[in-house]
Design a protein that fits this description.
It contains three helices and six strands; from the N terminus they run H-E-E-H-E-E-H-E-E. It is α+β, with helices and mostly antiparallel strands. It has one domain: Cytidine Deaminase, domain 2. Strands 1, 2, 3, 4, 5 and 6 form a six-stranded mixed β-sheet that branches. Strand 5 and strand 6 form a beta hairpin. It is globular, with a radius of gyration of 14 Å.
Length: 127
């Protein structure tokens, strides 16, 4: 297993912590600085204990949660984000970050994002 595969597997494991209403919506993210795992993130469907999300969607994306949870700040350009999603049938789903998450990663100093495309192929995005 390659380093990229193993780090995407960590992101996929983080998706198990998601509280999304359907398994296919569960996303996970792992933020690394060189060889060091800095934080994990998973999409949070209910962001407040008293929210039932009636009539609107209140959620945090996995990449955003990983950036919020990190406690170590490294030099810009050394950070890499890995994002993964598993479909309900167990196959890998598209985990390409949305435009807002890409902007957040860029602001936070993330240099690369690895994710799965619609066919389960690993893709890299340089920021």
């Amino acid at each position: 297993m390659s380093q990229i595969d193993s780090r995407l597997a960590v992101a996929l494991a983080a998706s198990d912590m998601s509280d999304a209403p359907r398994i296919g919506l569960c996303m996970g993210a792992a933020l690394y600085s060189g060889p060091r795992l800095l934080s994990l993130g998973y999409n949070r469907w209910h962001t407040h204990p008293e929210s039932d999300n009636s009539g609107y969607n209140v959620s945090l994306h996995a990449e955003h949660v990983a950036l919020l949870r990190r406690r170590h700040y490294d030099r810009r350009g050394r950070l890499t984000m890995y994002v993964a999603r598993q479909r309900e049938d167990g196959s890998l789903g598209c985990s390409k970050p949305c435009a807002n998450c890409v902007r957040l990663c860029k602001i936070a100093g993330v240099a690369r994002i690895w994710f799965y495309d619609y066919n389960g192929k690993i893709e890299e995005m340089s920021l």
